[in-house]
Each structure stands twice: as C-alpha cells, then as structure tokens.
Design goal:
Largest sheet: none
Strand content: under 5%
Structural class: mainly alpha
CATH superfamily of the largest domain: RNA polymerase sigma factor, region 2, helix turn helix motif
CATH topology of the largest domain: Rna Polymerase Sigma Factor, Chain: A
CATH architecture of the largest domain: Orthogonal Bundle
C-alpha cells in the first residue's frame, strides 16, 4: 500500500507522510480494535498510542516490509495488553467469550521469537494480491472506496458511473476477495472482513 517514498519520509519524520498513513489506516485499525474492546474512548486511545509508537520507532521501518504490518502488530499488542490488564485489575474480561479465531489472531507469533512473517503481513499480502486480481474497473472502484477512503458518491462522479454501479462493484469485489482469502486463511476471514466493513 505504501511505497518506498512514503516509508523514507516516515523515517525522516515528515509529518505529512505520517498524517497520510494515519488517514488511510485509521478506519481499519478502529474496526480491528472494536473486535475486542467495546469502550470507544479506549479504542481511540489505543490507536493514538499506536501511532505515537510508530512515530517514536520510525527508524525501525524497513523498505522491504509493509508499514501496515508494523502498525497492526503494534495495535494488536496494545489490544492484548489492555485485555490482560483489565482481566487482572477488574476481573471483568472473560477470555472464553473471545472465539477461537480471535484468540488465535491475538496470540499467534507473539511469543515464538521466530524470524518469519507475522499473520498481519501474510493477510495483508494476500489481500493485496486478491485486489490486484479484480477486473480493472472493479479494482479501481474498490481501491478508491476501501483503500483510499473516498466516498462512494465521489468515486461515482470521478469515474462517470452511477452510485448503484459503484455499490455493485464493491459488493462483487468483496465476494471475490472473500473467496480467495477463505481458501488461504479460513480461520481469519471474519477478522479481515470486519476490517474492510467501513
């Protein structure tokens, strides 16, 4: 999603690049956080802390690794730490209420210490591959609405098509992406599409 230029600008401390990464990733990060944390204020705090951490650790950004993977790892760890803290302090978080897929998503690779791709990285790579395989017009509409964050009406006007056609492209794109990712990551498909549902 983010090219080498954006990564370089982030590492150099360019506020504009930082704001652009925040703008694009915020809806998906919020959706992910809300999977596990119902307190809206806490969700916002965790996202803010994640981006502060990204800024503080921007020198760790690597050109051969997706920025979004790094951000999602940071966010996941903060969600996990928050749930653990709540469990210890208030004893009001029932981890058994989290379904098996969610627990797997939170915990996998946290404590292995192995040098391999994180689940976030694999999911994001698979997602982008699925998007790239969409028919041309469908891919353009999907990217503009779901990745760039434009409103459907804006995309319809820009491309000279009806709002209904934009909606149809998005629905078909989601179905095709769903079919591809279901084969590759069946245990995590619900998490991915929750993030896309914005």
């Amino acid at each position: 999603m983010f090219g080498i230029q954006t990564k370089t600008e982030l590492k150099q401390g360019n506020p504009a690049a930082y704001k652009e990464v925040f703008r694009i990733l915020y809806p998906r990060l919020k959706g992910y956080c809300k999977l596990f944390i119902s307190d809206q204020n806490q969700v916002e705090d965790i996202i803010q802390e994640t981006f502060i951490s990204l800024w503080d650790n921007r020198n760790s950004i690597k050109n051969d690794k997706p920025v979004e993977s790094l951000v999602f790892v940071m966010l996941r760890n903060r969600c996990l730490n928050y749930l653990k803290k709540q469990k210890l302090e208030k004893d009001n978080i029932d981890f058994e209420q989290l379904n098996e897929n969610q627990i797997q998503y939170l915990y996998q690779l946290d404590f292995t210490g192995r040098e391999e791709k994180s689940m976030e990285e694999m999911l994001i790579e698979s997602f982008h591959e699925a998007v790239d395989e969409l028919p041309d017009k469908m891919r353009i509409v999907f990217k503009k609405c779901k990745i760039e964050g434009l409103k459907q009406k804006e995309v319809a006007e820009e491309l000279g098509i009806s709002l209904k056609m934009v909606e149809k492209h998005i629905a078909k794109a989601k179905l095709q992406i769903h079919e591809k990712l279901l084969k590759q990551h069946p245990a995590l498909i619900a998490v991915i599409f929750f993030l896309l549902d914005k």
